[in-house]
Amino acid sequence: MKKSNESTKKFYLIREDVLPESVQKTIKVKNALLKNSNLTIYDAVKEFNLSRSAFYKYKDTIFPIDRLEEQTRNLTLILYVQDEVGMLAFVLNKIAELKGSVLTIHQSLPMKERATITISLNATNIELTLEELMDAIKESPHVDEVEVIGMSM
C-alpha cells in the first residue's frame, strides 16, 4: 500500500457557488487575462476588487472543469435511473450519437424500481461541455440524475 506523503496532491470537483469569494474572483481575473492579452495582472485584479496576493495564491490551483476537459476527456458518470426496459440502450445510443466511446458500464441490481448505472467514457470526440453532456444524458427517458464521479488527469 502506498504511504501518504505531503507532496501528494488531491483534487476535488466542487461547485462554484460554494467556493470562497477570493477563489471565484481569481477565476474571473484569469478569464479576463485570457480574453485580453493587453490587460495587466494589476489592472485585472483591480477590476475585480481582488488583492494581488490572493490572485497569486490561487492562480495555479484553480481551473474550471471545462479547461481540464480540453486536456483530458475520460469521464466516469453515475446515473440514477428508473428501472425500465430499454432505458440503458437509450442512454448508450445517446452517448454514441454524441460521438462518445463507452469504456465500461456497471448497472446495479434494481431495488424498488430504481437503479444506478456507472459509465466510464472517452469523450474526446464529444463537442459539448461537460454540463451540456450531462444535460443531454439526463434528457433520456427515466434518467433522474447524472453526476460526475471521476475524470482522468
Describe this structure in words.
With 153 residues, this protein is an alpha+beta fold. Helices cover 37% and strands 22% of the residues. It has helices at 21-35, 41-47, 52-58, 65-71, 87-97, 130-138; strands at 74-82, 101-107, 114-122, 143-151. The chain has a four-stranded antiparallel sheet, covered by helices on one side. The longest helix is centred in the N-terminal third of the chain and has 15 residues, at 21-35. It holds the Pfam family ACT_4.
CATH hierarchy class name of the largest domain: Alpha Beta
Uncertain parts: 1-6
Side by side, the strands of the main sheet go 2-3-1-4
The total count of strands amounts to: 4
Largest β sheet strand count, sense and barrel closure: 4 strands, antiparallel
- Assign the structural class, choosing from mainly alpha, mainly beta, alpha/beta, alpha+beta, or little secondary structure: alpha+beta
Tell me the count of domains.
2
CATH architecture of the largest domain: 2-Layer Sandwich
CATH superfamily of the largest domain: ACT domain
Q: Give the SSE order as H and E letters.
A: HHHHEHEEHE
pLDDT averaged residue by residue: 86
